[in-house]
Amino acid sequence: MTAQIAYPLTSLPVAAASSVKKDGWRGMMRALAAEGKLLITNHNQPEAVILSTAEYTRLVEAAQAARNASPDPLVELRRRFDERLAVLAEDTAGDALRSAMRSPGQLGGRVKAGSTF
Fold first, then answer.
1. Which of 6, 13, 19, 81 matches a 20 to 30 Å C-alpha distance to 42?
2. pLDDT tens digit string along 66-98?
């Protein structure tokens, strides 16, 4: 699994909205080329983050890799449930249930709450 790196807004290069207006698109692209990301502020408050296409692609690929690296817990739960439920579809399921009901288990005075207890 790839290590995730958190980028707080304070670590991004900053451009004020007024400088964006002043320098125009080319000036913004020059600033963006240096780091791949740029925080735009308005009255010293963060307003937007602009990413280069390379940085955006890197983030999307990292998110996809993280999604693929961690298994979906519902898939595993469903598999285990289906595995246990499959016993009921066997031809001998009815006989096994009747047999179990005819001879109750011996618990020795203890309570059994499930296979994990």
1. 6
2. 888 877 888 889 999 999 889 888 898 888 888
Count of domains forming the chain:
2
Q: Indicate whether 57 and 18 sit together in one domain.
A: yes
Output the pTM of the full model: 0.51
Rounded to 10 degrees, the C-alpha dihedral 41/42/47/50 comes to -50
- List, as one string, the DSSP characters of the chain: -PPP----GGGS-EEEHHHHHHHHHHHHHHHHHHHSEEEEEETTEEEEEEE-HHHHHHHHHHHHHHHHHSPPHHHHHHHHHHHHHGGGGSTTHHHHHHHHHHS----TT----STT-
